[in-house]
Amino acid sequence: MKTLLSFGHGYSARALTPLLLAEGWTVIGTTRSAEKADTLRGEGVEPVIFGEALDDGMARATHVLISAGPDEAGDPILRAYLHLLETNLGRMDWVGYLSTTGVYGDHAGGWIDEETPLTPTTRRGKWRVEAEAAWQALAARTGAPLHVFRLAGIYGPGRGPFAKVRNGTARRIVKPGQVFSRIHVEDIAQVLAASIARPDAGAIYNLCDDDPAPPQDVIGYAAELLGQPLPPEEDFEAAEMTPMARSFYAESKRVRNDRIKTDLGVELLYPDYRAGLTDLLRRDRDGVITKT
């Protein structure tokens, strides 16, 4: 039986889960709380509290997905389960690591692809580069069929701008030349499923849609869909922002996604933010339950 062992079974991994369960897979997911474990159990996942023994889950696994992000001390999965990974990853059919396009750094709005050198400027981006290298080194030692997925900004059910637009807290921060790439969580799920079906050990994929865009345009379109007044523009330099929020504007780039199309045959469900937001609003109005 095909079994996915998912480390850090969060938003993106949960979007993949129903695709696998529909094909008869077993999904085992780690989480950090009993409350989240109950939620995962209700979605058909076998939960394991992070840090507890995973010998049984690893023995049953045929595929492994790593979604947990690194911190200043490195990758938490490698810290907690290195020996188990070293002795088991080599026999897996597929191993996926979810990284971020932040590894590329700032390109002043220019286009980048998977061959672009990694020159991160943020602390989180540097952590990701180190984590990618650590997983690639582990794969080289063990023969694990590692695939790296560099994700752009994620949105989807439960993660759209509509609530802030409705309650008047949405902000249109304008920094000239600033653009971001994005990816709908359901497109992340279909790319992962396509890679599992067509494994290519060592491959690296950028996951983003076809339309990098300024953040104020996304907020503006959400307001238009809702029939709400357009939030006023705020100059980036003068805007009051937390250091975390401001750091997201430190890098500007347009990310190419050709490889997921040519190598995996993926046709994006939501090729731009307009398609994605229109669908999210439809679900909201239809009373579709969203997950976060």
From TrEMBL:
One Pfam entry name: Epimerase
Gene3D superfamilies on file: NAD(P)-binding Rossmann-like Domain
Protein name: Nucleoside-diphosphate-sugar epimerase
Keywords: NAD
Domain of life of the native organism: Bacteria
Domain spans labelled NAD-dependent epimerase/dehydratase: 96-207
NAD listed as a keyword: yes
